[in-house]
Amino acid sequence: MTRWISSSPCALASLAPAVVIRSASAADAAQIAAVMQASWRAAYQGIIAPEVIGRVTASDGGARVRQSFRTRPWQKTFVAVEAQPEARRKRNAADGIVGYAFFGPEQDVLGAPWPHPLSPEGQQGQVAELYALYVHPAWWSTGTGRALMSRVLETASAAGYLSVRLWVLRDNARARRFYERAGFAPDGASHTLEGLGGVTEIRYRRLLPAGPARGDG
Question: How many whole angstroms from its chain centre is CA 26?
């Protein structure tokens, strides 16, 4: 587990919320789905049509997330948990999951239809992909997203990946700023998501430092 206390340029870190980053399991599916629902509705307002957001985020008790644990064994999932057990007990909250990230080998998004197979570079363990990173809107700008990104990058580097790619909606300015601050930059690739009303995604990429699994010395 990693404890992350969000930093502040005003030296108010002690007042900021803290989260613990841990690996997730299928038992977390319902809470992950709830974060996804809330974040989609806030982040994609004005970008994706409301009826499409409603369809994609329709409540299913976490069934789709649980299915991904069964059908995508290569996918790693991390969750950010509110690190205030006393506060959770007072609210009768189960585990306080406020964000999550999915990542694994790169998928062939451009060359094959859904469900996308792994790309050759993904199969060879050279390129990782951040499939998703979402934080509940109530926890935006608290360092939670940075904590999840840090764990993903550390894990990918330790596994020997050379770089990480991700796809982000072209019109999602907030997310693009977040990824650019994390060291990602557009690599020129893009595609259209017809199933989401014809919105455009662009691909971002960043190199990783040499990890222990790579044998650099």
Answer: 16
Structural domain contains residue 149: yes
CATH of the domain at 143: 3.40.630.30
Q: 29-43 and 63-71 are packed helices; what angle lies between their axes, rounded to 10 degrees?
A: 110
- Amino acid of residue 94: A
Structure tokens belonging to residue 135: 């934080």
Cα 106 to Cα 163: distance, rounded to the nearest angstrom: 10
Task: Give the number of domains in the chain.
Answer: 1
Domain-located, residue 189: no
> What is the pTM for the complete model shown?
0.86
Which pLDDT tens digit goes with each residue over 23-35? 999 999 999 999 9
The Cβ-side half-sphere exposure at 205, using a 13 Å CA radius, reads 13
Query: Which helix (H) or strand (E) covers residue 98, if one does?
Result: strand 97-105
The token pair at 156 is 């990918």
| Domain extent for 157 | 2-165
Domain presence at residue 206 = no
How far from 38 is each of 3, 41, 98, CA to CA, in Å? 24, 5, 10
Tokens 């502040």, located at residue: 8
Q: Higher pLDDT residue, 22 or 9?
A: 22
**Residue 121 maps to a domain:** yes
pLDDT band of residue 90 (cuts 50, 70, 90) is very low
